[in-house]
C-alpha cells in the first residue's frame, strides 16, 4: 500500500479520530450549561468561572507548574552532563550506562513510584513537595539523556580540536562550541521533561502527601467523586496548555534549523 494512497489517508484519518474524538467530546461539554454529558443544553462559561474561583485548585495548578519547571531545569542540567560523560567513555561503559538509562524509561511507572515511596520512607524524607520534585527530576533525566546524546554523537570532534588549537579553555569549548551545537537536543529534552512532569500521575500518586498534590492526581480524585464538568474545564485548559508547549517547541526547532542552515551557507 502506497503512503499517499486513499486507503493510507483514510487509515490515518481514522487513527486521528480515535485519538482526538474523546478529547474534543470532553472539551465540547465543558461549555454545557447542564450538569452532565448526556445532553448539551446551551453554551456557558460558568464551569470555567467556577474553576478560577476555586482557590485550592489554583494553588494546585501553581504547584504543578512549579514542580514541572524546576524538575525540567534540573533534569536538563543533569541530563546534559550525563550525556557528555557517556559520550566520552569507552564503548563498553557507554553501552552499560545506556542500558541502565533505557531501563528507567521503559520500566512501569507503578514500579518506579513504589520504589521512590520506599526510598523516601527509608531516608526519612516526608512526602510532599520535596519528594515529588526529586522523583520528577529522577524520571526526567533519562529522557533528557536520550534527546541530547544523538546530537553529541553526530558532532564532529574537529570542531573541538579547532577550538582548542585556537586557545579555547575547556569552559569555552563547552559553552561556545558544544552547547550551541547540541542546543536543539537540549531544548527537546527540556520540553519532553516538562511534558512528562505535567502529565505524570502514577509516580506522583505514590509520593504525594502532607496536603500537597498535582493536577493529574487532583483530576483523578475529582473523577472518583462522580462526573463533574469542572473536570472537563480543567482538562480542556491542561490540554490547551500542552498544545501551546508543543507549538512553542516546534517554532524553536524551526528557528534553530534556519540558524543552522544560514551557518552552513556562510
What does this structure look like?
- By secondary structure, the chain is an all-alpha fold.
- The chain has a single domain, classed as MetI-like (MetI-like fold).
- The chain is built from 11 helices and no strands.
- Helix 3 packs parallel to helix 6 and helix 8 packs antiparallel against helix 11.
- The radius of gyration is 23 Å and the shape is globular.
- The two termini are 42 Å apart.
- 24% of the residues are buried.
Reported by name, the CATH topology is: MetI-like fold
| H-E order | HHHHHHHHHHH
Residue-averaged pLDDT: 83
The outline comes out as globular
Q: What structural category do the secondary elements indicate?
A: mainly alpha
* Number of domains as seen in the coordinates: 1
Seen as an oligomer or otherwise, the chain set is single chain
Largest sheet: none
CATH superfamily: MetI-like
CATH architecture grouping = Orthogonal Bundle
- Number of DSSP-assigned strands: 0
Q: Provide the low-confidence segments as ranges.
A: none
Name of the top-level CATH class: Mainly Alpha
Instruction: Determine the number of helices (DSSP H or I, runs of at least 4 residues).
Output: 11
Radius of gyration from CA coordinates: 23 Å
* Distance linking N and C termini: 42 Å
Strand content: under 5%
Helical residue percent band? over 70%
Amino acid at each position: 500500500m502506497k503512503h499517499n494512497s486513499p486507503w493510507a489517508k483514510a487509515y490515518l484519518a481514522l487513527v486521528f479520530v480515535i485519538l482526538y474524538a474523546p478529547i474534543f467530546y470532553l472539551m465540547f461539554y465543558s461549555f454545557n450549561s447542564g450538569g452532565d454529558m448526556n445532553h448539551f443544553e446551551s453554551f456557558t462559561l460558568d464551569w470555567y468561572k467556577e474553576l478560577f474561583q476555586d482557590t485550592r485548585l489554583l494553588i494546585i495548578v501553581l504547584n504543578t507548574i512549579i514542580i514541572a519547571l524546576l524538575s525540567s531545569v534540573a533534569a536538563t542540567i543533569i541530563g546534559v552532563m550525563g550525556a557528555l560523560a557517556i559520550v566520552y567513555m569507552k564503548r563498553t561503559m557507554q553501552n552499560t550506562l545506556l542500558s541502565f538509562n533505557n531501563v528507567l524509561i521503559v520500566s512501569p511507572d507503578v514500579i518506579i513510584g513504589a520504589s521512590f515511596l520506599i526510598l523516601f520512607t527509608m531516608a526519612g524524607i516526608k512526602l510532599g513537595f520535596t519528594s515529588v520534585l526529586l522523583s520528577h527530576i529522577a524520571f526526567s533525566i533519562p529522557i533528557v539523556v536520550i534527546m541530547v546524546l544523538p546530537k553529541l554523537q553526530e558532532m564532529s570532534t574537529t570542531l573541538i580540536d579547532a577550538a582548542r588549537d585556537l586557545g579555547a579553555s575547556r569552559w569555552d569549548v563547552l559553552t561556545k562550541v558544544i552547547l550551541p551545537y547540541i542546543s536543539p537536543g537540549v531544548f527537546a529534552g527540556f520540553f519532553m521533561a516538562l511534558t512528562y512532569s505535567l502529565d505524570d500521575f502514577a509516580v506522583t500518586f505514590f509520593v504525594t502527601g502532607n496536603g500537597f498534590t498535582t493536577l493529574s492526581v487532583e483530576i483523578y480524585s475529582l473523577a472518583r467523586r462522580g462526573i463533574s464538568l469542572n473536570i472537563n474545564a480543567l482538562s480542556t485548559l491542561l490540554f490547551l496548555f500542552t498544545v501551546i508547549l508543543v507549538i512553542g517547541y516546534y517554532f524553536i526547532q524551526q528557528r534553530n534549523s534556519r540558524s543552522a542552515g544560514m551557518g552552513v551557507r556562510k
